[in-house]
Amino acid sequence: MKLLSAKFEPDALSIVIQAQVDFEQFEQFAEPLAVALDCDIRERQWGADRHQWLLNFEGCPVWLHYEFYGDICWLSVDNANDVDVLGFLASLLTPHIQTTQEGLHG
After folding, report:
1. Under DSSP, is residue 5 helix (H, G, I), strand (E, B) or coil?
2. Domain count, the chain
3. What CA–CA distance (Å, rounded) separates 15 from 32?
4. Eight-state DSSP code of residue 99
5. Fewest CB within 10 A of the end CB: N or C in the chain?
6. What is Dmax (Cα atoms) for the chain?
């Protein structure tokens, strides 16, 4: 799992993630991400250009999205009352973000 950045956007109920993701092998990115977030994987959905997984963090549903054509990855919640969960998850991602130097060598 190679995370380059994670930006918590509370107004959008999301965390925008920049990462090195291989669409064809999405699970190699998503499964370690779920472990890093201490989430269970509940559902795995995918289509021609998109992955959407439902994760569970302590009873809170969290969506992991990835769109191939825009190379866009994000986590989201459906309920504004769960925005604090996203803030906490963003803090769990911080230690996994690689600096530019690490990305060049990792």
Report:
1. strand
2. 1
3. 17
4. P
5. C
6. 40
DSSP state of 98: P
In DSSP notation, 8-30 reads: EEGGGTEEEEEEE--GGGTHHHH
Helix (H, G, I), strand (E, B) or coil at 60: strand
* 54, 65, 104 from 76: Cα distances, Å: 10, 8, 29
Six-digit token string for 64: 């992991």
- Give the mean pLDDT per block of 10 residues along the chain (106 residues): 92 95 94 96 94 97 96 96 96 85 46
Quote the pLDDT of residue 106.
Answer: 46
CATH code of 55's domain: 3.30.160
Domain that holds residue 60: 2-105
In whole angstroms, what is the distance from residue 6 CA to residue 90 CA? 7
